[in-house]
Amino acid sequence: MSSKTFATVLTAALGLTVLAACATDSGGDTTADGKTVVKVALEPGQDKSAVDAFNARVAQFEQANPGIDLVVEEFKWDPTKFTAQLAGGTLPDVVTVPFTDGRGLIERHQIADISGDVTQLPYAGKFNPEVAKTGQDASGKQQAIPIAAYTQALHYNRTLFKQAGLDPDRPPSTWDEVRADAKQIAERTGAAGYAQMTKDNTGGWILVTQDYAFGGRTEKLDGDKATATIDTPQLRQVLQNLRAMRWDDNSMGANFLYDWNGINQDFAAGRIGMYVSGGGNYKDLLSQNAIKPADYGVTALPLTGPDAGALGGGTLAVVNVKASKKTQSAAVKWIDFYYLRKLTDEAAAQGDAKTNADAKQAVGSPELPVFDKATYDERLRWIGQYVNVPLPQMTPYTSKMFDQQLLPEPTRATQKVYGVLDTVVQKVLTDRGADVNALLADAQTQAQALLDRS
């Protein structure tokens, strides 16, 4: 979100990989012919072209590293299941996790300390400091490797904009314009003009995004002490705006229990005019939801006031703490090869882009650099011939994404606090008489209790 995977649709070639995996010794670290085994994760739900692209990269890695055998397992990150998976031995050796979970995994010693291997990478000193610290321990050692970063953006359906009499080349740049455009889309097309994620912690994630966009913050840190700052004028304004769109304008459709997968599916199907999510979401919309490229548009998140900023996040590659040291080192080689070398090396960048283009995967989708803007721009030049995404339709976002103030997600009890906020936004969108002040006061109390225990 398969290649050499244990899914039911294995091809003959994948079957050979399973046999190789079965040939490992009792420790599971090496094959019968002495190769180091590394179990790497592939998120389930990918279409065939995405799996084909992953297969190709696995084959290329194994050819370049004949002493390493990759075994691919379908795996989707779920923080509620991670500890059990780790204890039960079902966790792959390399998995990817959100920035918000990195520090907790490090502090609980649930991932391997790969900092020694990371320091040997040729670009180890070139990480964006703000991005790199999401995978560092208290002493600054890089125990998790940032592989992708993003800021939130406003995604919109260009076809629905045209049908509603709106100019898709001039998307909304204020929240008042978002509201007005959503109402016009709903009235003239019957689609939801704007939709909002509300469950499985995504409701809290997007609500915090909007809070930041109005100049608010949901936590205040003073040394080790974290104070919840949820019951604020900014978050109250966000909720009042959502309530007006839902109940006064009737512009938000009929589904108020969206998660990330569900909202992507309905957006790609043309049932949603606008929604907020990560700026680089196009590649997932293409690979998982078969969005029509002509429908897609993305613009910078509207920001209101001097303290407003765009929530940023990203993905870390981490290594199973139970893996042997030999496997850990081999795992870092895979992370370097698959995730990072394509960002720092011309030949690798072009090879990765060609592989993905041949597999009809998105090449050139906007993303914040793990390193710096110069490296990002240089990579785009390297892969220019393979870019297959509608870049002109993304310029409302890419022209501004480096200029917006980037704000990290809350760092304490993040997902649990998001869960508390899920309930708040669900209540506002499903109960016309919901008391916003009471909801925020209660959420403030619950969040503070979670922060006190974190």
Describe the 3D structure.
The chain is of the alpha+beta class. The protein folds into two domains: 12-149 and 314-379, Periplasmic binding protein-like II (D-Maltodextrin-Binding Protein, domain 2, 3-Layer(aba) Sandwich); 153-299 and 412-453, D-Maltodextrin-Binding Protein, domain 2 (3-Layer(aba) Sandwich), CATH 3.40.190. The chain is built from 18 helices and ten strands. The chain has helices at residues 12-22, 48-64, 82-88, 99-107, 115-118, 129-132, 158-163, 175-189, 202-213, 233-248, 260-268, 282-289, 325-344, 346-358, 373-382, 395-398, 414-430, 436-453, and strands spanning 36-42, 68-74, 94-98, 145-157, 219-222, 225-228, 274-278, 296-300, 310-319, 406-408. Strands 3, 4, 7, 8, 9 and 10 form a six-stranded mixed beta sheet that branches. Strands 1-2 form a two-stranded parallel ribbon. Helix 2 (48-64) packs antiparallel against helix 14 and helix 9 packs across helix 10. The longest helix has 20 residues, at 325-344.
Descriptive labels:
alpha+beta, D-Maltodextrin-Binding Protein, domain 2, 6-stranded mixed beta sheet, 18 helices, 44% helix
User: How far from one another are the termini?
Assistant: 30 Å
As for the CATH topology of the largest domain, it is D-Maltodextrin-Binding Protein, domain 2
Tally the helices. Answer: 18
Percent of residues in helices: 40-55%
Order of helices and strands: HEHEHEHHHEHHHEEHHEHEEHHHHEHH
What is the CATH H-level superfamily of the largest domain?
Answer: Periplasmic binding protein-like II
Class per helix and strand makeup: alpha+beta
Query: What is the average of the pLDDT values?
Result: 90
